[in-house]
């Protein structure tokens, strides 16, 4: 059904006049008559009768008039909602964020809610690999994880930060006082790593494999403060990103940046490749570009806010 024809019909019935409807719609009377005849042909029934200079609805015309008003009202509401979404006045966004990354996002959330108070934002905490699975399955539009991801997989990624990985140990550790520590120096050291489902652990295990080293993992935990506590107790060497270590009570503990190879905590956003990103998602990415700091090298995608 032609919505324009329906609009012309509803206006004609409302004003009970072809002439007044044409004036109201800023078209000719012949155009109004033609569109209503087209609507009658499509529905297979007469919708209007003329009584003198008045245009009155038939029984079926009254039905079309009432339903037509509802349809046109819905169309106006739809248009308004679409415009509000495009202007970021309304909408909803859920972002998946791993627990070890969430501390980076407090200023982002504040800036996002200040700038776009009409958007509903919720954060779903899950491990990096779990976030990747949720985005791949379509349960989340956007998420954050540790890079790199599988370049041949279904996900697109954009990095927003790169931070060194530090070793944390007791103050009397053999390497205490050194600013850097090679991966080879950890060959026989008991290691304290994040839980196995963490993307950082995946990155660390791959680095050890590439170096031909079999790591001796003494313990794992999903809580980074517990990893530091175990390191302080002498249970092993914790391997954690610099932003996390800086927020922990590590005074008096030995810390050193991993080198040869230099390992970095690469954090980025992920979404399904070639899938439409909502206005809210693009707004979130734009805010992250503004607020988050860190080296930006070789982003493999660009999203226009």
Automatic annotation (TrEMBL):
Give GO cellular component annotations, separated by semicolons.
cytosol
Q: Which Pfam family is an annotated match for this chain, by its short name?
A: LysR_substrate
GO molecular-function term, one example from the UniProt record:
DNA-binding transcription factor activity
What family is this protein classified in? Belongs to the LysR transcriptional regulatory family.
Sorted keywords for this record are:
DNA-binding, Transcription, Transcription regulation
Q: Where is the HTH lysR-type domain?
A: 1-58
Tell me the leader sequence span: none
Taxonomic lineage per UniProt? Answer: Bacteria, Pseudomonadati, Pseudomonadota, Betaproteobacteria, Burkholderiales
Species for this entry: Pigmentiphaga aceris
User: What is the name of this protein?
Assistant: LysR family transcriptional regulator
Instruction: Tell me which domain of life the UniProt entry assigns to the organism this sequence originates from.
Output: Bacteria
């Amino acid at each position: 059904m032609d919505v324009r024809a329906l609009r012309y019909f509803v206006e004609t019935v409302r004003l009970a006049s072809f002439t007044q409807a044409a004036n109201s719609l800023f078209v000719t009377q012949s155009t109004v008559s033609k569109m209503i005849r087209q609507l009658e042909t499509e529905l297979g029934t007469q919708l209007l009768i003329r009584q003198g200079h008045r245009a009155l609805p038939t029984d079926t015309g009254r039905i079309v008039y009432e339903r037509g008003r509802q349809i046109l009202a819905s169309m106006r509401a739809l248009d308004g909602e679409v415009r509000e979404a495009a202007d970021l006045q309304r909408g909803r966004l859920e972002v998946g964020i791993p627990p070890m990354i969430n501390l980076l996002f407090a200023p982002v959330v504040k800036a996002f809610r200040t700038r776009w108070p009409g958007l509903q934002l919720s954060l779903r905490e899950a491990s990096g690999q779990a976030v990747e699975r949720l985005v791949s399955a379509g349960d989340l539009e956007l998420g954050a994880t540790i890079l790199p991801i599988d370049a041949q997989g279904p996900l697109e990624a954009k990095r927003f930060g790169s931070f060194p990985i530090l070793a944390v140990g007791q103050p009397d550790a053999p390497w205490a006082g050194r600013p850097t520590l090679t991966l080879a120096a950890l060959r026989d050291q008991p290691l304290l790593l994040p839980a196995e489902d963490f993307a950082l652990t995946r990155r660390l295990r791959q680095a050890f494999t590439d170096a031909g080293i079999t790591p001796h993992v003494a313990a794992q935990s999903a809580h980074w403060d517990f990893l530091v506590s175990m390191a302080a107790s002498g249970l092993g060497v914790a391997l954690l990103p610099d932003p996390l270590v800086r927020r922990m009570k590590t005074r008096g503990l030995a810390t050193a940046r991993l080198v040869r190879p230099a390992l970095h905590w690469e954090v980025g956003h992920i979404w399904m490749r070639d899938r439409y990103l909502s206005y809210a998602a693009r707004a979130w990415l734009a805010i992250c570009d503004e607020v988050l700091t860190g080296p930006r090298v070789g982003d493999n995608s660009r999203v226009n806010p």
